[in-house]
Amino acid sequence: MKRRTTLKDLAKELNLAASTISRALDDHPGISPETKEKVLNKAEELGFTRNSIASSFRKNKTLTIGVIVPRIDIHFHSLVISGIEEFAYKAGYNVTIFQSRDSIKRETKITKILQNKMSEGVIICLGTETDSYEHFEKLNRLKIPLVFYDRVPSDYEANKIIINDYESAFKATEHLIEIGCKRIGHIGGSQSTGIFKDRYEGFKAALTKHGFPMDKKLVHFTRELSYEEGALVAKKLLNLENRPDGIFCSNDYTAVSAIQVFQKNNIKIPNEISIVGFSNYPISKIIEPHLTTVNDRAFEMGMAAARLLIRQIEEEEDIIQSEIVTIKTELIVRESTMRSS
């Protein structure tokens, strides 16, 4: 019986690293179109097909990926999970979901469970309480691949799937400036969390670029960026003697609550105050007027996280410790910033 062609066979035939072959087969953006075509042609010629299940039995693998999310009920994380499962299913892997509820104590307990070789690799979004990473060191020592997404450690070498929060916030704020807003407020998240700090920095940078003064009365930070917190901040901004005519919010929940508070007080949106959110939650297309927001491409982030993790699982001899993949965002302009001339 003819021996099955392996990844190493392809690597030898093409004089390329096995990791390069694997990335080409995964359509990785870092591999040139020419190399991808060469690899695909040779794979077809030699009859190469990936057989994750058979490989896993031979290596005594569980074919399971562990995913730790802060909160499953947040739409962003639900979309990320969908992306992870979509890619993992096609690769022959199962996905087990854990919820940290933003607690470092709970997050630590979950990682201990996963250390017991329950899963081949771990994908995680850090909880808001997480300020140390000792609980991940055992995973590294056991050579269990680890990928962080969205909320990632800033001073810890690791594989990360991120968006450019600073640039996205800058563009969102600049959009408010370009439509004529003169006093722009910000409803932000906890500044101990990197993504929300970056969004605040992007907001400030846009004001600075266009010569706008920084008025601290227009900036408020929340603990969880909840609907209720957004409403409280909006009421404070409403009661200012010189209230804002534009607001950039660090998520859609606070943006929607702000819209409703101003509407209840007969403030016209967008002509009297324009509002931009972040994440493109379904509610952004339900609220009237529809919300201008940043599409953070959560599903694509999940796909990218699973792709990177599974590549490491299947290439044990070539585990990558610090690859960073940045997912491109887009500003979706809707009625909440479409001012009449």
Would you give an account of this structure?
- The chain is an alpha/beta fold and 341 residues long.
- It folds into three domains: 40 residues, no CATH class; 133 residues, Rossmann fold; 139 residues, Rossmann fold, CATH 3.40.50.
- The strands form two sheets. A six-stranded parallel sheet has the order 2-1-3-4-5-11, with helices on both faces. It has a six-stranded mixed sheet with strand order 7-6-8-9-10-12, sandwiched between helices.
- Helix 5 packs parallel to helix 12 and helix 6 packs parallel to helix 7.
- The longest helix has 17 residues.
- About 2% of the residues have low confidence.
- Pfam families: LacI, Peripla_BP_3.
- It comes from Belliella kenyensis.
Strand order of the biggest β-sheet = 2-1-3-4-5-11
Under the CATH scheme, which class of the largest domain? Alpha Beta
String of helices and strands: HHHHEHEHEHEEHEHEHEHEEHEE
Query: Which topology of the largest domain does CATH recognise?
Result: Rossmann fold
Q: How many strands, which pairing sense, and closed or not: the largest β-sheet? A: 6 strands, parallel
SS field, number of helical segments: 12
Which segments are poorly predicted (pLDDT under 50) over 5 or more consecutive residues? 52-58
CATH architecture of the largest domain: 3-Layer(aba) Sandwich
Strand segment count = 12
Please state roughly what percent of the residues sit in beta strands, choosing from under 5%, 5-15%, 15-25%, 25-35%, 35-45% or over 45%: 15-25%
Helix content: 40-55%
Within CATH, the superfamily of the largest domain carries the name Response regulator
- Give the integer mean of the pLDDT values: 90
Question: How would you describe the shape?
Answer: elongated
Q: What's the gyration radius in Å?
A: 23 Å
Distance between the termini: 76 Å
Q: Can you tell me the number of structural domains?
A: 3
Keywords: DNA-binding, Transcription, Transcription regulation
InterPro entries: HTH_LacI (IPR000843), LacI/GalR-like_sensor (IPR046335), Lambda_DNA-bd_dom_sf (IPR010982), Peripla_BP_I (IPR028082)
Pfam families: LacI, Peripla_BP_3
Protein name: LacI family DNA-binding transcriptional regulator
